[in-house]
Write a structure and sequence with these properties.
Distance between the termini: 30 Å
Strand order of the largest sheet: 1-4-3-2
CATH class: Alpha Beta
Largest sheet: 4 strands, mixed
Shape: globular
Number of strands: 8
Number of helices: 3
Strand content: 35-45%
Order of helices and strands: EHEEEHEHEEE
CATH architecture: Roll
Number of domains: 1
CATH superfamily: 2,3-Dihydroxybiphenyl 1,2-Dioxygenase, domain 1
């Protein structure tokens, strides 16, 4: 058993794909036409994954007021996602170059280096690396 996908509600597909692929370095593994389960409106099935596999993200474009209100609030303001990297310095530098919003400077904890950042939707993430 494994957790295959986690949904992130985004305002628009294009900027979200660009962020996760070009900025974070994920792989776009699927971008297929689909329809909503309620109402049959057109949508896309967009999946990105970290290189080498693992749990993927289903990028779901908000559909309606309730979903748009939830963009950036997946975890109600808490850090809800954790991106562990082998080379913290390289990932941090690449993200800085792309203008990622960080909350403070990296720090070292007993479990490794850490800094909080926000994704394209505004959700809070921990970037984690070895100490």
């Amino acid at each position: 058993m494994r957790l295959d996908l986690v949904t992130i509600v985004v305002a628009a597909y294009g900027p979200a794909i660009e962020f996760f692929v070009s900025v974070l370095g994920f792989e776009l593994v699927e971008d297929s036409p689909s329809v909503t389960s309620v109402g049959g409106r057109a949508k896309r099935w967009v999946v990105v994954r970290p290189p080498g596999g693992g749990t993927g993200l289903l990028l779901a474009q908000a559909d309606g007021e309730r979903q748009f209100a939830g963009v950036g609030e997946q975890a109600a303001g808490r850090v809800g996602f954790f991106l562990r990297v082998d080379d913290f310095e390289a990932a941090y530098a690449r993200m800085l170059e792309h203008g990622v919003a960080f909350e403070g400077l990296p720090r070292v904890e007993e479990y490794g280096k850490i800094v909080v950042f926000r994704d394209i939707a505004g959700n809070r993430w921990d970037l984690l690396g070895p100490s």
